Amino acid sequence: MQRARLALFLIASGWFAFAGAQTVPAPAVPLTGVQSQSIMDVKPDASNAPGYAQQTNGERGKVQPGNNAPMWRQVGGGVTGYSSLPVTQAPEAGNLIQPTVQYPGSRVTSSGEAWRQVRNNWIIPYGAALIAISALALAILYFTKGALGKDHPDTGRKIERFTPLERAAHWTNAFAFLALAVSGLVMAFGKFFLQPVVGGTLFGWLTYLLKNLHNFVGPLFAVSLAVIVVLFIKDNIANKADFVWLSKAGGMLGGDHEVPSHRFNAGEKGLFWWGITIPGIFVVATGLILDKLIPGLGILRGDMQVAHMVHATLALWMIALLIGHIYMGTIGTRGAYSAMKTGYVPEGWAQEHHELWYDDIKAGKIPAERSVQSASGAGASVQV
Predict the structure, then answer these.
(1) pTM
(2) Which distant-in-sequence residues (6+ apart) come within 8 Å of 158 by Cβ?
(3) Residue 15 neighbours by CB distance under 10 Å
(4) Highest-confidence segment of 40-54, 73-87, 126-140, 290-304
């Protein structure tokens, strides 16, 4: 019995000792490294810390370890940092990311990303669609109506439609525009249809060559465009006959007789203003900015982005419209190409396509031959 009592006593003592050991607090051990903190106690950017806005990234790391968001907000906000490059040579060297903007068709984002969205989501796909629609419409017109006009016999009586100066300016501007259009289209769309065929290396060299061609032909286009505007502007002023022509769509919607017009009809005048002159001026101006040839412009990335969007949009617009001009001046109208090639048109052609112009020539208001021709000229003038 005495042994049993001793055993129970030992068991009870061990139990109480074990229980006591569980409740005795462990000795305090100093913590090192990162300390946790309730997120509810921390304001955005840890702005409750004294002098937080002036802290360096390293000092902020003591409050919120690894938080570089404030620095990147400054970078994304267009804050200019230090750069050893002179401002005159690199005015944006201290700006890694451009400020937030919203270009037409883009989200509110950094300027570079907004430009990318406009180019890739709008200019490229819709520009390609515009050119394709223009070409398709002309193909449908050709296969449904064929070439416009009649074949006129050579009676020896011809009218000078374009002087040598006018033809020289036209062909110079035409070849410059074709070089710019082809090089621009390859640079814009070549990676979709050309690069898969020729490979990346050849495509890279080709675009490099075309880029330089584009840059050197641009000034030639600008000068010839100015000459074109000066030479033809007086005959492209709207008059009463143009409104009649427009009301009847030039006679293309019905009947075989063209609506009478002066030297240029309303469609040709519209192309002169809205397909060549006005967009051409902006295309030239933005091209000069992109080439950094206008003092004070083209240095900042934002200037280049806006200039590129305007340049590309109007260039594609001009290409789509001038496809129609090329069509009407070659296979679309009988005798039109010969007029620009030789400068002269038969008397019947002038009467058929520009009856009011022909009537003024017969009445003596306009000379039938406006340039001085040699004895072996292209033909005699109209005898009234």
Answers:
(1) 0.77
(2) 344, 345, 346, 347, 378, 379, 380, 381, 382
(3) 10
(4) 126-140
